[in-house]
Amino acid sequence: xxxxxxxxxxxxxxxxxTIIRLFGYFKFSKGLFFGGIFFIILGAVAEIAANGxxxxxxxxxxxxxxxxxxxxxxxxxxxxxxxxxxxx
Length: 88
Known about the structure:
The protein has one domain (6-87). Helices cover 76% and strands 0% of the residues. The protein has helices at residues 6-9, 15-24, 30-52, 54-62, 67-87. Helix 3 runs antiparallel to helix 5 and helix 4 runs antiparallel to helix 5 (67-87).
């Protein structure tokens, strides 16, 4: 017969102490930790910006703007996609 309180045994007795201990493992590689956080944020922001650039690109195609505006928006979106791939 299974013990119905098995999930309670997996909980830490002191969650605050456990979190401090887990973050203590990063003290030898702080650069990697903060670099990872930075690139996660960079990738998320660039993904949102790349999605936001779709509207101006479509507008330049539909409204018949000159090609320099269209190429400018494509280059901006290309840079954002590079940031997305760097963040991943």
